[in-house]
Design brief:
The protein is of the alpha/beta class. The chain is built from 14 helices and 17 strands. It has 3 domains: about 1-180, inorganic pyrophosphatase (n-terminal core) (Alpha-Beta Complex); about 185-305, Diaminopimelate Epimerase, Chain A, domain 1, CATH 3.10.310; about 310-425, CBS-domain (Roll), CATH 3.10.580.10.
Length: about 425
């Protein structure tokens, strides 16, 4: 027997992935968890007969030979298949857009995309599978829900292309507008009001952050939507809600970010949860809200681009040129080294300027090539200390429209950060 499973608390992206997997593996049985989100309940109350789902109680796990997991790679988020975790003879196929997890699969498709259905659509297109308008509509709901209508920072170009593909397959936008309305009732309003009343703003590693802690009673739906609204109202780069259920002695931590550099997914994975750059959550049993808040702050300081010091990415030793050297000598050095500029120092090795190919535009006649470089160098030198962050360097480059910044320590130049260094780091192109 082959079965398809997805995470508890099923949302539209998970349901869409479940249905798409059934198209890819027609012989497999799709198992729908019993805990699903409110929006999904409304959709299934009308459309459930169109999809042939099974309950985990209907499945004899002893007969399962292949487990197909979609939109999660965590065993604890699956329902009714705990016994399969220790089976050596089980084939596992994993399709998920969360990078980290504990499910070891025989066949894995795992990439960070805005929505998991995007990965499924890629395979549907590759296999030239036909999909109906209602399937297209469901898939688009999953895609829009997980990408915030293609507005979340985690959204990729492939997500947008997938949306276009689904619209071309007659996805109904009216159905989307009907069922993607978030439940927002008295409980959610009261929680949001309480959060706003105690709102605080702090700057951590160059980001504006607000962290709200409060106690709740029992399960409250759509807390993630409340945290998103809170972030927008207090107008910060990132907001975190720490909700403690005293009766069950557990804390739900939810984060939302509007900037790519502050990666919520990284923070939540460090706390045992998961998510994407713009959104994520973690459930912590027996945790103190105050301790969790301190943990969030430290993770922001320690796990983001802003925490990477200049000393980690700068180039050294630095090739400098004496201010009395001729322009021709400097030009030869730049050609030989294959660089676009270098710091200029005086006889005491103090930095007095920077010369770049852009400065060579000031040369008007041949005799200028024999002039000292100090006649053409840029004298307004922007420097940075080694304990500043990579983001600080990038901001200086943008502000001053420069391509390199000397790194100084006690007025002595110890390295240099170039635009290439910053871009290589931020776009994850550094060698392992």
């Amino acid at each position: 027997m082959k079965i398809i499973v997805t995470h508890k608390g099923t949302d539209f992206d998970a349901l869409a992935s479940l249905v798409a997997a059934k198209i890819l593996y027609p012989e497999a049985l799709p198992v729908l968890p019993r805990t699903i989100n409110p929006n999904l309940k409304g959709f299934l109350s009308i459309h459930k007969d169109l999809f042939d789902f099974y309950d985990s109680k209907e499945i004899d796990v002893n007969e399962v030979t292949t487990l197909i997991v979609v939109d999660t790679n965590s065993w604890k988020r699956l329902e009714g298949v705990e016994l399969l975790k220790t089976r050596d003879d089980l084939e596992v196929i994993l399709i998920d857009h969360h990078v980290k997890g504990d499910i070891e699969a025989d066949v894995t498709t795992r990439e960070e995309t805005g929505a998991n259905i995007t990965l499924m659509i890629r395979e549907l297109v590759r296999q030239k599978k036909l999909i109906t308008p209602i399937q297209s509509s469901l898939f688009l709901m999953g895609l829009y829900e997980d990408t915030g209508n293609l507005t979340f920072p985690s959204t990729l170009a492939e997500d947008a292309r997938a949306a276009g593909f689904l619209l071309d397959r007659k996805a109904d936008l009216h159905i989307l507008s009907t069922f993607l309305r978030h439940a927002y009732g008295k409980k959610q309003k009261d929680i949001l009001f309480h959060m706003i009343q105690g709102a605080n703003r702090q700057e951590i590693s160059g980001f504006t952050v607000s962290i709200s802690t409060m106690e709740i009673e029992g399960h409250v739906q759509n807390l993630s939507m409340v945290v998103q609204m809170y972030r927008e109202i207090v107008n910060v780069d990132a907001a975190f809600g720490i909700f403690r259920d005293r009766e069950k002695d557990k804390c739900m931590v939810i984060g939302r970010s509007r900037v790519d550099e502050l990666n919520i997914g990284v923070i939540m994975r460090s706390m045992g949860g998961g998510g994407h750059p713009g959104a994520g959550s973690a459930l912590i049993k027996g945790g103190s809200p105050q301790v969790i808040e301190e943990m969030v702050v430290e993770l922001i300081r320690g796990n983001q681009h802003s925490s990477v010091m200049i000393g980690d990415i700068m180039s050294f030793p630095v090739v400098t040129v004496n201010h009395a050297s001729s322009v021709e000598e400097v030009a030869d050095m730049l050609r030989e080294l294959g660089c676009t500029g270098m710091p200029v120092v005086d006889d005491d090795e103090n930095i007095v300027g920077v010369i770049s190919r852009r400065d060579f535009r000031k040369i008007k006649k041949a005799d200028d090539m024999q002039a000292p470089v100090k006649a053409f160098m840029s004298r307004e030198v922007v420097t940075i200390e080694r304990d500043k962050s990579a983001i600080d360097a990038a901001r200086l480059m943008i502000k001053h429209d420069i391509g390199r910044i000397p790194v100084v320590e006690n007025s002595t130049i110890i390295g240099i950060v170039t635009r290439s260094d910053a871009m290589l780091y931020f776009y994850d192109l550094l060698p392992d």
